[in-house]
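Follow-up to my post from last week.
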Amino acid sequence: MTDALWYLGRGTGVMALVLLTISVALGVAARSGEPLGPLPRFAVTAVHRNSGLIASVLLVGHVVTLLLDPYAQLKLIDVLVPFLGTAEPFWLGLGTLGLDLLLAVVVTSLLRMRVGVRGWRAVHWVSYAAWPVSLLHTLGMGTDAATPWLLALSVLCFVAVAAAAVYRLTLRAEVSR
Amino acid sequence: MTTLHIDWTACHGRGLCAELLPELLATDPWGYPIARTGGDVDVPAELHADAVTATKFCPRLALRLRAR
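User reply:
Got it. Predicted complex:
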């Protein structure tokens, strides 16, 4: 049982990073105002939203399993207040910070029709901090961080978001020319 | 019956609504939605759910459904 919690905690963390990466990359690319190749725009938006929501659910699993896991030594306060952890307070704190930021993004997005475009967009910019913080948390805290597969996955995540950013910036340059 | 109102000051012509509601909305050459019937769009009951989706997916929240 203890082993199950430990493996679930790690697995949900890794998959949350992958889905968060998909959501951020699509968000960056879709904001260009141009369709992504042959894909309908609403489909890109739908995958952006759903991958973000699934990442949040996985993140809840990640936190709850490791909170219950005796080996992780997480205290309840570490879930919301960063940099107070017992082991590796800095790398754990980055995870907590990422969770707090993502919470703000998800809540304002779910209430987007009420919050209005301005407030929602202002908070949505926080995603650009939440994603790199999550990636650093994975690399600094991850039990599997030294393994080739997680390193490769992290590089892939970075490349995906970097490619989306380059696509968006070059597209804007072309339009303004 | 509900009508669909387009807020032209908010609309940026991203075109998601016309993809989701092709029965009611066409796009002009710049991607801005045009009501196939002109003015506010009458939404028949069978398209109500699709109109709600289009409202929720507008990146600029420029669509409003109004009861009539």
